[in-house]
Design a protein that fits this description.
The protein is mainly alpha-helical. About 50% of the residues lie in helices and about 5% in strands. A hairpin with a 5-residue loop joins strand 2 and strand 3. The model has no long low-confidence stretch (mean pLDDT about 95).
């Protein structure tokens, strides 16, 4: 079915050489007015990732065919648009809103519940949890209320948004979703020779490592023995709240580093707090600030489509069918305006703290090293972007705020 799109290779060859990739949005099942698509992708001779097959719902059937690039032009265009509707719905509700904004708010509550302002770990993460509660409170009224953006600018509407977040959170893992190296390994994308133009991995790991080294230096300054960790009831209470069920007043997170009795090693502490700082900074920035690039031309990445998705390879779809599927002009303008606003950085960059919470000599030196490392990462990215076909700036430290503020 797809071998004609593999540049003379067999499907088995491409699978063995790790050139075939799949995106399966099964998590969208039960969400109103959106597709539940599966997409098959191929990394071609130029290492560009291109779609080679799309099925818009999970179960194949007479009215749910597999669409291919060889289908008539507008059939394939519509299939890609309806696939991207599902992808955009997941991106906004889960990758962006739930897995950065909402996760960080619950962590912020746990931090303030258990770690006193004098605690070194509180002072470590305080600059990275400064705005998240305020922006989430404002967002609930503007975006997540009846008549708000998610209600009128997304096919899934408000009800579908909350249903999707609930579905996704059931399998969300602090480690496999939140810790970048573990996430890449979990998705089998940790090999740098696979998808060589995967700049999110290439640049993101450098920022992750810089944050981790910064956190590691500070944590090991304050925790020099196992007893330092075991007797820190504030730290142990914080970690216990992360894993406690939502029904019992906790965050309900799965796979938080540690053991049943709590945190036992400095590496576990470092992983937990690196994840928090990375999610608040680079994780959110990479998810949020490219929104206008994607959503700014609604046919490319539509959050809302009208009518029904294509359900036949026999029907001759036309440009008029594509136009009829698009939102109204007013809706498209509102979507473009919102994505432009959300793509605007308006606070200090990573490592440039408005308030200095840690002022012991080790922490001051660690911050100085952290800033120097980030500066070097920025220079490296600038050099790489001169030769990249499409410059990738999401993990340039100048474009990463300390905290979620929009």
């Amino acid at each position: 079915m797809v071998e004609s799109f593999l540049e003379g290779k067999t499907l088995d060859e491409c699978l063995q050489n790790k050139r075939i990739f799949i995106v399966n949005h099964k998590v969208l099942e039960g969400v109103q007015n959106v597709t539940v698509p599966i997409g098959l992708f191929y990394a071609n001779v130029n290492n560009d990732l291109i779609p080679i097959a799309i099925q818009l719902y999970q179960e194949k059937g007479p009215e749910n065919p597999v669409f291919l690039p060889s289908d008539p032009k507008y059939t394939w265009v519509l299939a890609k648009m309806w696939f991207n509707l599902g992808d955009a719905s997941y991106h906004e509700a889960c990758t962006h809103l739930a897995f950065t904004h909402f996760i960080l708010e619950s962590i912020s509550v746990a931090v303030n519940r258990h770690l006193s302002p004098s605690h070194p770990l509180y002072r470590l993460v305080a600059p990275h949890l400064h705005f998240v509660m305020a922006i989430n409170h404002r967002g609930l009224g503007k975006l997540l209320d009846k008549g708000g953006a998610f209600d009128v600018l997304f096919s899934m509407g408000l009800k579908g948004t909350f249903a999707l977040i609930a579905n996704a959170f059931k399998t969300w893992s602090f480690t496999n979703n939140g810790i970048l190296p573990a996430n890449l390994k979990h998705r089998r994308l940790d090999d740098p020779k696979v998808l060589t133009k995967y700049y999110y991995r290439e640049d993101g790991l450098k920022v992750w490592d810089a944050i981790r080294n910064y956190v590691d230096t500070i944590v090991k300054e304050y925790y020099t023995t196992d007893d330092d960790i075991g007797y820190d009831f504030e730290l142990q209470g914080f970690r216990a709240t992360l894993v406690r069920s939502i029904e019992n007043g906790g965050c309900g997170f799965q796979d938080v580093p540690g053991v049943e009795d709590g945190v036992t090693t400095t590496d576990q502490i470092v992983d937990i707090f690196t994840m928090i700082i990375f999610t608040a900074s680079g994780g959110h920035a990479s998810t949020n600030f490219g929104q206008y690039d994607q959503y700014g031309f609604p046919p490319n990445y539509p959050a809302l489509l009208r009518g029904k998705p294509p359900n036949s390879k026999e029907k001759e779809y036309t440009e008029q069918d594509v136009m009829a599927a698009l939102p109204t002009k007013d809706t498209m303008l509102s979507s473009m305006t919102l994505s432009k606003l959300l793509s605007t950085k308006n606070t200090d960059s990573l490592g440039e703290y408005e308030t200095q919470f840690l002022y012991d000599q080790t922490s001051v030196n660690a911050l100085r090293t952290f800033k120097r490392t980030l500066n070097e990462i920025g220079k490296e990215i600038n050099v790489k972007n001169r030769v990249r076909t499409y410059p990738y700036v999401r993990f340039h430290p100048d474009n990463i705020p300390n905290d979620i503020s929009i």
